[in-house]
Amino acid sequence: MALTAQALLLSFEDRTEDLGTAAQQAHTLVSKDWAASRAKEVKDPGVVESVVLLPGGLASTVTPEPAYTTHLSVADGEGGLVALTQSLGPVMGSKVAAPGLGFVYAATMGYLGPQPPGARPFSSQSPLIVLKDGEPAYVLGAAGGRRIISAIVAVVSRVVDEELSLADAMALPRFHPTPEAIYVEGRRAATWSAADMAELASFGFAPEARAAASYFARIHGIEFDALTDAFIGVADPRGAGGARGARR
Question: Residue 13 belongs to what domain range?
Fold first, then answer.
């Protein structure tokens, strides 16, 4: 958890860095060389005595992102897959609807905070389709502001690295790092162990428990079971929503 927390903090810092034009920034952020250089900044407690929570310093100045988001994941019988995350912003967004199209435009420029003219607002929306051997394995995304990113990273790591089912991965406790603290889930149905807390302490982190399920992002996803050739919908137990499918 501590290694992932450091990686997440670095990624949050990256999106506030001036990396050139939009094209240059996109090229850098998906570069394996850039990833390798940032990975060297993730510290091991066996090498250093403690870890500074915020390696750079820019992330602490970012305006927090409110959570006004909905996510849905869909698969059809023809092989179509959709991971759709929509966020209007507060109080019904811009309150402007596209005639005949049935949707309201968002109002999220306020998430930028003080920025120079021409700056583009970043988003934490992370709709994702995961492939295995070129075939769909998972469709997922989440609602919950910046906490979307930490939730998606945790769940994907658990299904890929630990080979858990999507339902089991989503039920396990979550955490979210910020420049001020690392918040860990501490509700009855999802709690980190004393060993996990000791690990965080060995890295210099001071965890703070959050019992409210609403603090952490809510994921809704689909897992493809190759053995039964079926799609399994999984709704996050932390919030409203559900999984539905047509019966064969």
Answer: 2-235
